[in-house]
Amino acid sequence: MARTATSFVCQACGAVASKWAGRCDACNGWNTLAEEAPAAPVSGSGGAVLPRGRASRLVGLKGAGTVRSRILTGIGELDRVAGGGFVPNSGVLIGGDPGIGKSTLLLQALASLAERGHRVVYVTGEEAIDQVGLRAERLGLADAPVLLAAETSVPDILATLSEGPVPSMVVIDSIQTLWSPVIEAAPGTVSQLRAGTEALLRFAKSKGSAILFVGHVTKEGQIAGPKVIEHMVDTVLYFEGDRGHAFRILRAVKNRFGPTDEIGVFEMSDRGLIEVANPSRLFTAGNEDHGPGSAVFAGVEGSRPLLMEIQALVSPSSLGTPRRAVVGFDPGRLSMLLAVLEARGGVRVGAQDVYLNVAGGLKVREPAADLAAAAALISSLTGKTLPGDAVFFGEIALSGAVRAVGQSDQRLKEALRLGLTQAVTAPLTAPGRGPGEAETGGFAGLKEIADVAELTAWISTLE
């Protein structure tokens, strides 16, 4: 009898090796290779023979767009990130740090749908049903007709979902606990993740349900498991936040049915997650009485303009190598800004400790924040307080020039809506608009900065 060949699959990247090794050659991860038995080959002479296939029904492109209306959870921020609601026949993967609020948000969404007559199912593989009930009672959702099941076996989950009417939405908490008997591997391995996700997605595509998978994350903040899982689902959402702050950011990084890079803002309370209708005012609260080193940045997250406060502290260093501490900002970007300020703007920061922080636990990802960060650094170094009613946005090049960024009008309109009447940015060159004119319905005080030397000179004149 021929010996069954086995392979070793990396649990971090999905690479396959013929023998075990302490480190994966593909991702350099240590102790990530696990032995997995291959699927049994189809019997036949001369090796594996595929069975005769069945022809599929061909549909024209014109008649392929008839999709039922989206499923609205009633939570505006969640529906916004999903692209205006969840699409039936789809799979959504939601990742986030432990305790960030993933299960709480999804339980609130299911309760809202159940109270409006939808059949929804919450399948938990990490908690008992009584534990989920205790959380629902704490959130005031104990009376919501949400159906619960504590199960990890994929065939049992599919059999449970097939009984009775097809549910509108299903939550699987979490995908790492799924176990399929046809795969000889432990739960959480690459093969189990792939098999469980594929089976449940097949159910969603054929029955019309929307399935939401909860995924664990690694210490780097990425969803645990291979990237193939993110490729299989239709939408990938990341739940971000700092445990030291009450604010949570739900971010879409992949969406086949809507825009990407969209965000939703929530605030954690003793009654669960509460939507934040005006995040700009929330993240700039208390900025009226700020001192040197504080600048308001007019950013854009997806389709939403968002104001946030960038704080900087520059102080003499007592160390041989000055410190560079960053929270919510790209450290590499800060190093570049410091080099440009010193070489092009005449700002001497080489012997100074530099601390940069984005208030509220936010993370800035766009280069348009360069000008606000530079202004905060210069303000802290010179001791000059920036105007409390001013916003900053613009990209700084290595030459020291300040470049214009997209969606300038939306940024200015959001600043005007919150009572900020001054703006410092790169020269705006939109067609049909003169220097200093913005399409914001009366925005005034627009100061155009061409380079960092001009920014330094302007801040030095402030009282």
Structural class: alpha/beta
Count of individual domains: 3
The low-pLDDT segments are: 42-46, 434-438
Radius of gyration: 27 Å
What separation lies between the terminal Cα atoms?
89 Å
CATH homology group of the largest domain: P-loop containing nucleotide triphosphate hydrolases
Q: Care to describe what's here?
A:
Helix content is 24%, strand content 24%. By secondary structure, the chain is an alpha/beta fold. It folds into 3 domains: 1-38; 76-277, 3-Layer(aba) Sandwich (Rossmann fold), CATH 3.40.50.300; 281-460, Ribosomal Protein S5, domain 2, CATH 3.30.230. The protein has a 9-stranded mixed beta sheet. Mean pLDDT is 84; it is low at 42-46 and 434-438.
Question: What's the short version?
Answer:
This protein is an alpha/beta fold and 463 residues long.
